[in-house]
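pls read this protein:
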Amino acid sequence: MRKIILAIVVSFFLFQLFQCTVGNIKRGGQSGGAPRQGGNEQRALNHLRKAQAALKRASRNKGGHRVRALKKTNQAIRQLR
């Protein structure tokens, strides 16, 4: 049951990240220099950091699911920076 909940939470945050990325593409991106994070991107980043903290606090042995979810969450955080 915890695996399912964890998968749903990570999927939600990755979906939010995807929505932010698509929205940025539709707007034509930001001009010049490093891209500036809008409100949606910042909220997605905050949610991902909360998920990351929850995954780090979770018990260690989840058949590898916790570790994979943490890697994907870290990847999503890096992509948003």
User: Anything to note?
Assistant: The chain has three helices and no strands.
